[in-house]
Specification:
Blueprint (H helix, E strand, L loop, with lengths): L12 H30 L5 E2 L4 E2 L2 E4 L2 H15 L6 E9 L7 E8 L5 H14 L9 E3 L7 E9 L2 E9 L3 E7 L4 H15 E2 L1
């Protein structure tokens, strides 16, 4: 009488072991190829950030008020994207007659995802004080690329255009103390191109 199925054949244990070992080796090789590729994609692009001694003829201000402001901004930006942001350096520039500029810049420790960037800008909008909220809006980022958002703040009765840029290398924050949103945005993009070099 014929069985409705073929009975299993006895498998050679050596072949089973060889098959398992071969599978593990293949997975190991694929991982050895994939891991460096993934890590390279997460590594930020090389960048040089330099806060010059002067900007547009305005010297860097070194008094305690400027130091307090730059420390506060640098500290806030350092915690903006945990595991992505590194340390920030900041400076204030003023010649007395032209609008003062506050700039903070920091390299990223890993390349941000599009979700990281969206979360960053959402956090920037939420981080503004209730006395002087700033609504940031996307603007063309200029030749350095990435994403840039700018808005007008009235901090302590002093209007300022605030622009924040993030790309695959760095975050640059610029506050230009003027109420002219167009001129302030143009100045902020100029400051960013002076500070960030790819």
């Amino acid at each position: 009488m014929a069985l409705p199925f073929n009975p299993p054949k006895r498998t050679n244990p050596a072949l089973v072991i060889a098959g398992v070992v071969g599978g593990v080796v293949v997975v190991g090789i694929l991982a050895a190829i994939a891991i460096p590729v993934v890590l390279a994609q997460q590594k930020p692009k090389p960048v040089t950030l330099t806060l010059p001694a002067t900007f547009d003829g305005s010297p860097r201000v070194t008094n305690s008020t400027a130091q307090q402001a730059t420390d506060l901004v640098a500290q806030g930006l350092s915690g903006a994207l945990p595991r992505v942001t590194g340390n920030f350096d900041a400076a204030v520039y003023s010649a007395g007659t032209s609008p003062a500029v506050l700039v903070a810049a920091g390299k990223l420790t890993r390349r941000p995802t599009s979700e990281d960037k969206a979360r960053f800008f959402q956090g920037m909008n939420n981080a503004q004080g209730t006395d002087d909220p700033v609504t940031l809006a996307a603007v063309p980022p200029g030749p350095l690329g990435g994403m840039t958002e700018c808005g007008l703040a009235n901090s302590s009765q002093t209007p300022a255009v605030v622009c924040v840029s993030i790309d695959d290398s760095a975050i640059v924050f610029v506050a230009v103390y003027t109420s002219d949103i167009t001129q302030g945005t143009m100045t902020a993009l100029e400051v960013r191109s002076t500070v960030e070099h790819k």
